[in-house]
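Example 3.2
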Amino acid sequence: MIIKKNKPIVIFLVAGGLLVFLHGVGALRPAENLLLFLTKPFLARFYQDGVALNGSYEAAQNKEDLEKKVSDLTATVAQLTVADSRCAETVEENKRLRETLQFLNVNNFQAVVANIIARETTAADNYDLIINRGSRDGLRSGLGVVSAEGVIVGQVVEVKDATAKICLTTSPRCQLAAAIQNQDKTQGITDGDLGLTVRMNYIPQLDQIAPGDTVVTSGLGGGIPRGLIIGKVTQVQNASNEVWQSATIEPLVNLNSLTVVSVIIP
């Protein structure tokens, strides 16, 4: 019974030993060469597929690593861009504040410095600014508002506790008592023109006005000091059969780029 149970094992061991003996003496070499010749294409194919599979894995791994590096670098660039932008804004704000303080000190003006927190576009081409100062800071309607360079850019038209609304000089119905620095010392009222320029109407025909003349506040009315620059004359509209002439005035600062202003307290 034991021999029958172990018979397959014995046969396997005998066959294995016989194959080892025949391989050792070279008797199986022709058969081995034939088998190698028949399987060589398949082995080569398996080897190539293995190399390609390994290369694909490495490529996928490299791609994943590169994508992670690109993502990390993109995040770093974004952080540096934000930091650089904040630094530039701080530098520009400090520059404007220094210019504002210099202007106020030179002219001995009392003023409240304010940041622009909003812009409003209303009907009839009115462009208004909202600042972060109000009645509790001493502001009231009718006060003049200047840029860091000292150019008047508008006046206060509405005041709340912590905020105030400013009409820009280019807005219709934002009127200022003005004077032209010409030989006749022409005086009049400026008004905004379509939110783009400033106009001075009802100028006597005999007054000599020319492009390049400087227009300043006249000080009449008491709310705005005399001598604040409004802009320069760019065009003069007159006709021989008209009683009055008018002038187009270009502001000396870009009103769209304002971020910090000062409200003059007379």
